[in-house]
Amino acid sequence: MNREEVVDLFEFLEINYPSFSYSSKTIDTWLSELQMFDVDDVKRNLKELMAEDLYSKTPPLLSRIIRGLTPKKEKIDFTKNIYFCSRCNRGFNSKEECDEHFNRCSSVDYVIRETRKWFKKELTRKELFAMSDEEFQERYCKLLHWIQNHTQNESEKTRIEFIFNPPKKERAKSFLESR
Fold first, then answer.
1. Are 15 and 70 members of one domain?
2. C-alpha span between 10 and 29 (Å, rounded)
3. Is residue 141 part of a domain?
4. What is the per-residue pLDDT for 135?
5. Which of 42, 74, 106 is the last residue of a domain?
6. pLDDT value at residue 31
């Protein structure tokens, strides 16, 4: 959504809720949260909420309006080819996006599993996917180094070494055949 669409949304709320008022600061705040969503999705959610008794006299909170909405950049265009992540079944419109996501998805699953195993700590996919790529990569590498230095499993040490220093084809083939 853009600023004009947020103002239109506020005018709609003002008509339906006479006590509703807004300022430039309110517009900026809502815009920062709404800019990633499609205006039609936001309006549809708002209208559905307005039909509920709970919101007959007071407008729904912003957090309630955007609950369950998919950001524009994550929406799938079903008129194009769709590629699905084989780990989580999320859809993508390009193979490159899907491959990139699959790599992150696999790493997230590994981090969750190994963090539970080594540190008895539960992490969620949501919190790991919320990290920027740079932050996740930094933490992922730190965990890999820690495991490499603490595991007694030589095969695991070698696999982690291959992540940091990809082997030549012959070395990789030899490693896989020895397993």
1. yes
2. 12
3. yes
4. 96
5. 74
6. 96
80 pLDDT band, cuts 50/70/90, is: confident
Same domain, 171 and 106: yes
Sign for the CA dihedral angle at 99, 104, 107, 112 comes to: negative
Q: Give the mean pLDDT of the chain.
A: 92
Q: Would you say residue 162 lies in a domain?
A: yes
Instruction: For Cα atoms 111, 37, 99, give the angle at the middle one, nearest 5 degrees.
Output: 40
Please count the structural domains in the chain.
Answer: 2
Neighbours of 75 (CB within 10 A): 14
With respect to residue 89, please indicate whether it lies within any of the assigned structural domains.
no
Residue 77: the pLDDT is: 77
Strands 83-84 and 91-92: antiparallel
Name the residue with tokens 């008129």. 79
Helix (H, G, I), strand (E, B) or coil at 116: helix
Q: Do 59 and 108 share a domain, yes or no?
A: no
